[in-house]
Amino acid sequence: MSRVNTVLGPVPAEELGFVAIHEHIGYGMPGSELDTRWWKTPEQRYQETVPKLRRYHELGGRTFVDATGICNGRDVDYYKSLSAKTGVHIVACTGFVGGDTALPFFARADVDYLTRQFVHEITVGIGDTGSLAGVIKVGVSRGGRMTNLDKRIYRAAARAALTTGVPILTHLAIDAENAVAIFEEEGLPLDRVLFGHVDDGVNAEKTRDVWLAEKGGRIGFDTFGYETELPDPPFWARPRKERLDHFLRFLDGGRRLKQVLASADANCSPLGWPGVKGHTVNYLFDDLVPDLRDAGLDEAAIRTIFVDNPADFLTLQK
Amino acid sequence: MSVNSTTVNTVLGPVPADELGVVSVHEALLSVLPGAEHAFDITLDRAGIFETLAAKLRDFRAHGGGTIVDSTGMFHGRDLPLYEALSRATGVHIVASTGQGPEELLGGYFLTPQTNPPTPWPAEKFADLFTREITEGMVVPRVERRRPAGLVTTAVSRDGMTATDESLLRGAARAALATGTAVSLRYGDDAAGELDIVRDEKLPADRIAVGGLDRKEAVDAGGPEKIAARGSYVVLDHVGTEDAEHLTDDDRADLVADLVRAGYADRILLSVGATGVAKGHPANDLPYSHLLTAFVPLLTGRGVGGADLDRILRANPRDLLAVR
Fold first, then answer.
1. A33/B142 touch (CB, cutoff 8 Å), yes or no
2. Measured between CB atoms, does A37 come within 8 Å of chain B?
3. Per-residue pLDDT reduced to its tens digit, B164-196
4. What is the CATH number of the domain that holds A63?
5. Is the CB of residue A293 less than 8 Å away from at least one CB of chain B?
6. How confident is the model at residue A79 (pLDDT cuts 50, 70, 90)?
7. Do A307 and A19 contact (CB within 8 A), yes or no?
8. Is the pTM of this model over 0.90?
9. Among the four residues A31, A64, B110, B271, which has the most C-beta atoms within 10 Å?
10. Burial class for A77, CB neighbours closer than 10 Å (0-12, 13-18, 19+)
11. Which structural domains are found in chain B, ordered by start?
12. Which SUPFAM superfamilies does the UniProt entry name for this protein (chain B) (predicted)?
């Protein structure tokens, strides 16, 4: 049986349809909730979020993977209401965006405890929501090298992935040798890991995307739309053509098509930062898919990237 | 209430300073190690927490206590609607605090912000964050502001002051200066040096309370006398804790008697450092009333009584907490 955990319950992978594999309903660094400059009323949050998800659904989007980790404003009850009212499947994650977003309670925890936290959220539920996490988020802290805490989180994620069959999604794929070493030590096949943000404007040059693909990993070009052409681009932006060329070069005439996933990493309604005006999940339909068609990708290839690969990746391996 | 009378900011609003009674300045009501609220094996049963805390507050009041200061700051489980209900139900004044620290207890928002490079927050930004918790009210995250904070609290890392710890000390000092509120700091490894940082911001010495001074290493370094001599408050805030790190209550009582004999009765503050309800970290389950039931007799046995005792338990905390 093919199952994927969404916030409204497990669904068959065949029903996922078009998937945005790395997105955020709303992301904020832990502690940002103390700073009133970012506060929004619930009305405003729904107002900023619902139209984007409804449009995503109208354009053909069916599934939205939220990569907002524990402590970053992850709010599963809110996601449930959004999913129920818009018809978009929402997959929530367990895990952490990076060690530097794990609060002290988890920063002090050992691998065993972190593993149990992740497994619980995947098999029993996230808090008292009853919703099961569908992916595990891990990542590299600011600074470019994996910290000891990052490594504990990666190791716990590998063990939880093996126990539960849920895949792992990474924030950044730099310092990948350390990540791969941990996954190999734990015996996790690398096709259960999406090495994300390989197209990130700051880190693309030092990300070994081809090496990771050759090791069997899945590769995430998942910051599409953070472009230097935007009126107020973030520091991780990149020229539009440079990112697209990178993606097409990586595809290598279709040879690595089965290993790629793409997404926009947009915030519907950011929680602890201004967000990036004009950038939404709908970049995928408005800009990326047309760009890929213009570059010569056929409908089958586009389906592979946005439907088949995500379904294969998200399906519980049990 | 005369026009000259001073007030203290409690969770139910300003209270005349003279009405506080016996005050314990370094306590915790609900103490949650940041992140523990998300732990799979920790539950926060509000009704149960209320029941536990109400019983402890009533016990404190029954033994003569008047005011509990929750000095855990803005990011360690502070729950204002709960504290308001507790104060109403028990009649104990509750003073809640703003501030945070040391660095290890901060969220990533303050340490690795989404800027390039991810520069940690400077003193000025902490000053603004803390000041607004006094001028505009304490935050219930992403929901509302409640009443003004009654104290600015921070702490320094045990293995020495980090750059962010220094920003927190300076930010706390500036918030205190701007609002007439006092600063409480739990010292890290150099009580006098850390006090100097706060003083460097021009905050008067008598607006600063230095906690942790009943740790053996503090006493071995002459910390209590040094802090008192500089005119700040010496907080012996582990009354009842007798372990490898701290003085016994007998030694603690000797220390108080020595300080009183040296003329520092007006610089001493006492507290149990209890955690009414602790989540995600070891509890200090002593009753808040331990100070009154067990420790005060040790002091009177050493000749510290009458006016001196009244000064330590009532007048000193009143003077510290009164908004200037």
1. yes
2. no
3. 999 999 999 999 999 999 999 999 999 999 999
4. 3.20.20.140
5. no
6. very high
7. yes
8. yes
9. A64
10. middle
11. 7-35+46-321 (3.20.20.140)
12. Metallo-dependent hydrolases
